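Input sequence (652 aa), recorded before submission:
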Amino acid sequence: MSPDPLRVLIIEDVPMDAELVEYELGRARIPFQARRVDTRELFLAELRAFEPDVILSDYTLPRFDGMAALELARSHAPATPFLIVTGSINEETAVGAMKAGAADYLLKSNLARIGPAIEGALARVRARNEKTRAEDALRESEARYRDLFDNASDLVCATDREGRFLYVNRAWHEGTGYSDTELAALRFGDLVHPESKARYTEVIARALAGETLTHVELTLMPRSDVPIVVEGNLSGARQADGSVTLRGIYRDVTERKRVDEQLRRAERMQAAGRLAGGMAHEVNNMMTGVIGFAEFLLRGLAPEDPRRSEVQEIIRAGSRAADVTRQLLAFTRQQLMHPEVLAINDVVLGLERMLRHSLGENHELELRLGTSLREVRADRGQLEQVLINLILNARDALPARGRVTIATSAAELDEAYAEGHGDVGIPAGAYVLLSVSDTGCGMDPEVQAKIFEPFFTTKPVGQGTGLGLSTVYGIVKQSGGFIWCYSEPRLGSTFKVYLPVLRAASPPAPPAARPAAPRGGSETLLVVEDEDVVRAMACRGLREHGYTVLEARNGAEAMAMIEGNPAAIDLVVSDVVMPEVGGRELAARLALLEPALPVLYMSGYTGEDVVQRGLMDAGAPFQQKPFTSDGLARAVRELLDSRVRRRTAPAT
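Predicted structure, token format:
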């Protein structure tokens, strides 16, 4: 029952009978307010003024009757349950009342049923309301789908196996220039450019065989006779009558193709333009001397002289050093910054086409851009260089097919976090977070320790300069931000770039009050983390908040500690990715041993990435790394408190 009093309108000409009804309502422990009427006029007036939650009506009254009241209630308050309460009623009359809309009927000799009857009537009303809302939601969903289909920017069509058009969306009409009437006389193959005919025949045959094709590229001839290039997905769906419908979703990539060519031309110009100037000139002069004199020496050696191979290595090393130096100093020239006020999402979206091209057609690029992000002050070209380098780095780590995710969000770092990372100079404050995650091969801790060092690379000899991530690091630091990487072998990598938000030029407002320190507790916690530094930091922070903290380096060690006395531990804080037994497997074992024991996951990957990788169930309690000791303590306290609330919640 609702905690608010139930408004009960009683239609009864005998006051004592009405009092009996109220008495039984009290016995049923139903909080209520009651009003009694015995005429049609009073009934209509109270319907408007009292707005009852339920109506209890005698069947027979001197100047009024229950069926007339029921008819009025259906007209003026159709959602309000109407129950007949009478001294005697035959079965036929009761059935008639129910068919007319009464929720139930009660005999005055059995008013003890009044509580369950009202509960049942209200439950049925709620069920009807839920059904109505669900039907409304379904209609809205269908309308949204139709609106999405009609207004999608991609060209969407469906054809039969012979290519006859079944339906197309508005973008298809706009992209090809053909109306529905014109398309009715055409087949899909009629729109395919001669250069794409063979490809079209191939993909149609594969789709009819049941294959779902992605990144299908075709050249179409629209009504304007100006070819367009489309890329999309094609699949076949078998209908109930045995026919096959071919469904295609295509995107016009004509402009992207032009941008690709412009990109290649710009890259060639950039490579040529960065050879000049200052220090690069001097270094190249030195490398020219080294290589030149080595070649003189080589010519002076006899063909059979074993020292020839050593000199050849000097020449090759000098050539590589010259190439790398030119690239390094070209990046250094970007230190001449031209900062401007930027919206980080605009930078990402403006570069999206180039990033997709750089990533390649075999890989998926996903954008998860936050909303209402504050602006930053940075050099647009440098931020674009950061994105390109991170995308290229991710691409080189991906298998034959993989996914790269670019995400943006707001981040607030407090003083405790800044003090804990004083060695890298991170000031507390508001930041915009730009992250690039991949599903590639990942890195071990030894590699992670060197990734931002100039010239460090894991690529084979002759591939890569080792300057991509070091350039990213320099740009981010020069922009007043910092970069952090989290990676695990075979599970991909996530690079997080934190850029300070733009501060208004007006006089600074008084500093906002720091969040209240999280409330501590005396419970016993188990922290499971394979990284010694993270585990030590988490345990120390929780102990400072009053908790008794046990430590384990992996899931197997944690299980050994818990199996002896599972009831002694109130909560487990566990990393997701660990050797031997990971966080998800640990939680599954704990559920068998102590089902009520809560588990708080933590990881350097974002929560969505962890779920997508199958390492954690969606909706599980999760703490993102990096975290502050206060942030972890706050998450622990909230989870412990929610457990207590569930234990003490009254049964319904």
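Checked by second reader. Residues 339-500 form a domain with the Heat Shock Protein 90 fold (CATH 3.30.565.10).
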